[in-house]
Write a structure and sequence with these properties.
3 domains, 3-stranded antiparallel sheet, binds adenosine-5'-diphosphate, single chain, disordered C terminus, GROEL, domain 1, elongated, GroEL, 7-stranded mixed sheet, alpha+beta, 16 helices, binds magnesium ion, GROEL, domain 2
Length: 538
């Protein structure tokens, strides 16, 4: 009776569906490919990548998050791995490559378990137990920081970047910047990185970078007749144009004789002069305007000995208001001496090709600026990324007050401790916890690989040291073998390591739980060997 039964279509035509093992292995392959693409950048001896976008713009970087951001990835599971890097960057500023590499390794090891017929939900449960335990162990391994250690945290973050050559110098700037803006709120140390403004300028050596107690504006004064520098400045912050107002409606003014024209122009000039007079009457010596300043107004300002900048950025106006204590005023008629901010010096200096304005010695100097220099645009950009990492980890370490030893020492220690924890769990979950434990060793192994060392021997040496209770031992990337990372002063914030392990684990679990992929767009097939074009290991 049912011999003529028709198949039922519930999905739109063109929808692609993969399910079961094949969905899983496809997702895992994609995620692993992403992890492999950044692996070679990990650690002090990691290599850089050159990324070229469709417009031909080039970025040279060692930063995991940047690499993944620039790569045009379509596979949905691969995109989840990129999310890890983003989360890591947002919360911890560093450890992006580590997080991605750990996630890749977790997935690789779970594939082996699936092949041994361990159900994905069991693997997920084991991973969850293991990552909870890992957080506990991280806390136990944490060391309280002192100020010297903050500098070493910055140095660890800068090691292996092109900025590594000047890491002492940049580490020093990072620590000073963080300490300058750190505040105690309800007994907790809080660092708002928005209070550290970074300006970059090419055309000089990195060593010319500096920390300025105040704000740097990438602007020059509007008129060369104005003073280059003003001491004990009274600063007016204005966010409307110092120009003749345009009429609301299109008005046509018919001028019939030359006298009328000059009268008309005189009136405009008088109006602008009156604006400048008002500014001067308020007692201001510096004008920072968010909008334009008319040529005629510039002339009067210069005659009055004022220092003025036009078209300042809104964010700079806000920062200036906060630092100088001045109020941003819209209507110049309302400007009074109460609205003015103060700064002990406002000065234009020639930096590289053009001028910049430095506003320093502000009463509420809770904001500082860093001027980063470098030979070329690519250098300055990479210095900027490295500096952001450094300042970020210093802020994190200063806020939390705890760090761990790096170089794979803590991951090796936790890996060892998780192995004995697994024995107490038993059953199939034990296999998953053991896989998790093994996966953490990917950090020291990759550090060794990237340093040109024998990864197997290094792991054997490392396990031996840890079994002898040398829990600070990690990979000696410079001389080979293993070494005490506490003595080597390699420190990183506990938060960076904890977040990396947590988000790697969560994402691996999320990917493992998928056994059905229904996509209205065809998923791009993975290239053979699971690597992206042009993104192979270097
Ligand atoms: P990520 O994006 O994960 O921060 P990095 O390329 O910055 O990647 O490498 C970080 C890893 O390098 C960490 O495991 C850190 O402990 C390690 N590392 C940093 N400095 C040293 C060092 N001097 N010796 C050994 N390992 C180091
Ligand atoms: Mg790093």
């Amino acid at each position: 009776m049912y011999s003529g039964q028709q198949p039922i279509f519930i999905l739109k035509e063109g929808t692609e569906r993969t399910s079961g093992r094949s969905a899983q292995s496809n997702n895992i392959a994609a995620a692993k490919a992403v992890a492999d693409s950044v692996r070679s950048t990990l650690g002090p001896k990691g290599m850089d990548k050159m990324l070229v976008d469709s417009m031909g713009d080039v970025v040279i970087t060692n930063d995991g998050a940047t690499i993944l951001k620039e790569m045009d990835i379509e596979h949905p599971a691969a995109k989840m791995i990129i999310e890890i890097a983003k989360t890591q960057e947002q919360h911890c500023y560093d450890g992006t490559t580590s997080a991605v590499v750990i996630a890749g390794e977790l997935l690789k090891r779970s594939e082996d378990l699936v092949e041994q017929n361990v159900h994905p939900t069991v693997i997920c449960e084991g991973f969850r137990l293991a990552s909870d335990k890992a957080s506990e162990l991280i806390e136990a391994h944490s060391i309280e920081v002192d100020q010297d250690m903050l500098e070493e945290v910055a140095k660890t973050a800068l090691t292996g970047k092109s900025a590594g050559a000047v890491k002492e110098f940049l580490a020093d700037i990072s620590v000073r910047a963080v300490l300058a803006v750190a505040q105690e709120v309800d007994g907790e140390t809080v660092v708002d990185l928005d209070d550290i403004k970074v300006q970059k300028r090419q055309g000089s050596s990195i060593k010319d970078s500096s920390l300025v107690d105040g704000i740097i504006l990438d602007k020059e004064r509007v008129h060369s007749g104005m003073p280059r520098s003003v001491s004990d400045a009274k600063v007016a912050l204005i966010n409307s144009a110092i120009e003749v107002k345009k009429t609301e409606v299109d008005a046509k003014i018919q001028i019939t004789d030359p006298n009328m024209l000059s009268q008309f122009l005189d009136e405009e000039e008088q109006y602008l002069k009156s604006l400048v007079d008002k500014i001067q009457d308020s007692g201001a010596s510096v004008v920072i305007c968010q909008k334009g300043i008319d040529d005629v107004a510039q002339h009067y300002m210069s005659k009055a000995g004022l220092f003025a900048i036009r078209r300042a950025k809104k964010s700079d106006m806000e920062a200036l208001s906060k630092a100088t204590g001045g109020r941003i005023v819209t209507n110049i008629d309302d400007l009074s001496s109460d609205d003015l901010g103060s700064a002990s010096k406002v000065e234009e200096r020639k930096i590289g090709e053009s001028d910049m304005v430095f506003v320093t010695g502000c009463p509420d100097a809770k904001s500082v600026s860093v001027l980063l220099r470098g030979g070329t645009e690519h250098v300055v950009d990479e210095i900027r990324r490295a500096f952001d990492d450094a300042v970020g980890v210093v802020a994190v370490a200063h806020e939390d007050g705890v760090v761990l030893t790096g170089g794979g020492s803590v991951t090796a220690a936790i890996s060892r401790e998780l192995r004995s924890y697994a024995e107490g769990i038993g059953g199939r979950e034990q296999m998953a916890i053991e896989a998790f434990s093994g996966a953490l060793e990917v950090i020291p192994r990759t550090l060794a690989e990237n340093a040109g060392l024998d990864p197997v021997n290094t792991i054997i040496d490392l396990r031996k040291s840890h079994s002898e209770g040398k829990s600070h031992f990690g990979v000696n990337v410079y001389e080979g073998g293993v070494a005490d990372m506490k003595e080597g002063r390699v420190f990183e914030p506990s938060r960076v390591v904890e977040q990396a392990i947590q988000s790697a684990s969560e994402t691996a679990v999320m990917i493992l739980r998928i056994d059905d992929v229904i996509s209205s767009r065809a998923t791009p097939p993975m290239p053979e060997g699971g690597e992206f074009d042009g993104m192979g290991m270097m």
